Amino acid sequence: MSFKTILGAASAAALLTFSTGAALADTWRYAFEEAIDEVQGVFAQKFKEEIEANSDHEVQLFPYGTLGESADIMEQAQSGILQFVNQSPGFTGALIPEAQVFFVPYLLPQDTGQLNSFFRNSQAIRELFPELYAEQGLELLTMYPEGEVAITTKAPLRSPEDLNEVKIRVMTNPLLVESYRAFGATPTPLPWGETYGGLQTNIIQGQENPAFFIESTKMYEVTDHITFIGHNNFTTALMANKDFFDDLDEGDQDLIRNATQAAFDHILEYQEGLTEESLDKIHEARPEVTITTLSEEERAPFEAAAAQVEAAFIEMTGERGQEILDQMKADLAAASEQ
Ligand code: 6CS
Questions:
Q1: pLDDT per residue over 263-302, tens digit each?
Q2: CA-CA distance, 337 to 112, in Å (whole number)?
Q3: Who contacts 285 (Cβ-Cβ below 8 Å, separation ≥6)?
């Protein structure tokens, strides 16, 4: 073999190595519904960190607003413009009706240990939901909680009567509308971007969200009373575009699964004490805002409304919804025993 041939073979090999490396080092786009320092953003940062530490891939993060509203980022993920999307069932419920099960009031436990154990081990999340998401072109990677939901209003809230004729902004899913109707309010589904202005102009008089979000988005500036009625914990989900995920080799699929697990563990830990810290910040920023947790007696009429919402869920989703609900209840019973 001549010197020239050896040189030619060596540079071809180098080029092959380089081009293979270049082809493997992809840039993945990941959008979510919150700011970079809010819960979904903290989750996304951890996911990015894990992917980039364990591969040559890069993850580009798109926080709320950079690519539009929740509905927009879902469309972009379904069409493959985005590889990853974090969206709450509050919005996905319009696309996958069974995902609305997370809005049956008083279904999820208030106890954090039980709640986390449910999200870690739920068969419904691991085995039943993925095929429903797959039908919409989505690979469900995980679901995780974002904190107990509180209702913020302009007038004090102690009973369903206090919600009479009160327009409460909800995320755009039919079961959430059903819930607030059952609670005695006038539900008003709106994208997030219209909420602050709607409260400011009194088009709506209340909304619901976890404490960290009430604090970070300054909902306490446009509503005066924060009430915990114990009805729900905010659930969200990370998904990948299914064609993108299916086309990856096993190594990259495992990389994504491992990064998801690391981000999941991180976000549960990150949220320890977050509700209390957020409420303290709200109190400091605006001491006149009331923060109330309803007594068991005061909660009772809201809890009584849950049966009606559960029935509406079954009416909307039929046998598949019933299967999901039954499995969720079995998973929750298992979580309560741990
Ligand atoms: O209420 C909403 O629309 C928003 N709430 C939270 C906690 N995250 C994103 C979502 O868009």
A1: 999 999 999 999 999 999 999 999 999 999 999 999 999 9
A2: 13
A3: 215, 220
Closest CA to 77 of 139, 26, 144: 139
For the full predicted model, state whether its pTM sits above 0.90.
yes
How many angstroms is it from 132 CA to the middle of ligand 1? 22
CATH class of 9-146+235-274: alpha beta
Pocket of ligand 1 (CB under 6 A): 33-34, 70, 88, 146, 171, 192, 209-210, 213, 234
Per-residue pLDDT tens for 67-107?
A: 999 999 999 999 999 999 999 999 998 899 999 999 999 99
The answer as to CATH 3.40.50.1110 being correct for domain 150-232+275-337 is: no
Q: Judge whether 37 and 68 are in contact, CB under 8 Å.
A: no
* Phi and psi based region of residue 68 (left: phi greater than 0; alpha: psi -120 to 50; beta: remaining): left
